[in-house]
Write a structure and sequence with these properties.
Order of helices and strands: HHHH
Number of helices: 4
Largest sheet: none
Radius of gyration: 17 Å
Helix content: 40-55%
Structural class: mainly alpha
Length: 102
């Protein structure tokens, strides 16, 4: 008789409202809220997680470099996603990139 593998625990659903509402709804640009980042950093001491760079930034500043880096990474994610997600302007990755001004 073959041994069965133990089942993995299901990941908690990323909620956008209510208790644990640490993620923005897709309509408001996806990504994490300030409250969510604060909660994550509390749970993971030493973390350097920050919210999105959404405003105007000086060329070459730290914020501009963070934006450029995120945009490059997220473009890779976008390219590897399904055609349905890639072409949907309301998908989470598209909305997040719009919020970051990529």
């Amino acid at each position: 008789m073959a041994a069965t593998k133990p089942r993995k625990k299901a990941k908690p659903i990323k909620r956008t409202t209510g208790k644990g509402g640490n993620y923005r709804p897709t309509k408001s640009g996806a990504g994490m809220t300030k409250k969510g980042v604060k909660a994550y950093r509390k749970a993971n001491p030493g973390s350097k997680l920050k919210t999105a760079v959404t405003g105007k930034v000086k060329k070459g500043s730290k914020a501009a470099k963070r934006r450029k880096s995120y945009c490059a990474r997220s473009l890779g994610q976008l390219k590897r996603s399904s055609a349905k997600t890639r072409n949907n302007p309301n998908s989470r990755i598209r909305q997040a990139r719009r919020r970051w001004r990529c």
